[in-house]
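User: You have something folded?
Assistant:
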Amino acid sequence: STGTGKTAAFLLPVLHQLAGKESAGLRVLVLTPTRELALQIDEQAMALGYHVRLSSVAIVGGMKMNPQEAAIRAGVEIIVATPGRLKDHMKQRQPYLDMSTVQFLILDEADRMFDMGFLPDVHFIESRLPKERQTLLFSATMPPKVRTLADSILRDPETVAVDPTKPAEGLEHCAFTVASNRKEALLGEILSYDRMVSVIVFVKRKSEADRLARTARRLSRREAASIHSGRSQQERIDALEDFRTGRCPVLIATDVAARGIDVSKVTHVVHFDVPRSSEDYIHRSGRTGRAGEDGEVITFVSPAEESEFASIEQAIGSSIRRATLRGFDTGLGGGGERSGGERGREGGGEGGGGRGRRRRR
């Protein structure tokens, strides 16, 4: 399940095997699809590696190559990289990245690397590593394309599988049936409640993220930031840090933030649009309720998205509770709860989980 320590599960055994041995250059290579995940893994590698005198560096795009090159030349033992930027370093005219000493190759979020088109880069990198090494591949799903990759780079692998089709326990799920042109107003309404302390709102397209952040600030009178691939790396780092520290309680995000990003105490995840697949629903939802904590997941479902949402319910084997809020119900949801206004007068609820009070404006 998300938030249970997968990064430590592969870092700790690797560090244990390397601890106390004489430094022999680069020994661990971790490939991951997003800059945010690479920076997060690198942070943990540095924190854990410090105790056994092993160093780490993140090699990601959107940042200057010179400091990365300097770290490589200094003899770092662990590199955590996105495939594209690592390939850039490998193809420099004056070679300085020696990967002949790599003992461990770790591919994290392999299915996401496929979705983002990194397969050619992964094969390019893997082909230049020593044949004698240990390779670990982690993937939320195992479609044929990922199985083909595994078969091509793993030798007699041991397979460990857990059920990836269900969201983590401890999450409360609900869905609002709402017209597409009323979703922004509904978001502004629910963000105005006190219990929405730390909220990630997922959208499908980066073009929506900045606009929705401005709308959320205007309607809810709360600070909101956006994070997506169109922003500079420093802007993405700043937005995530503001969200992590609570300076900005609302983060509007694309799937850049759906995989692996670990921010504690996220109280709510909102799917502004119905996710494209049950896997996306599970990964996005997993940003709340980390490591056994409670969390709430809210999905906005327009009438045109009903069939997609039904497919997600079928895939996860659960019917998600419908909630309504006065002024936003299309009347097409069926089986929904009473409106938030009625519930609020009776028990202090506001349509979602019925917990907390609306903020005074």
Q: What stands out?
A: The longest strand covers residues 171-177.
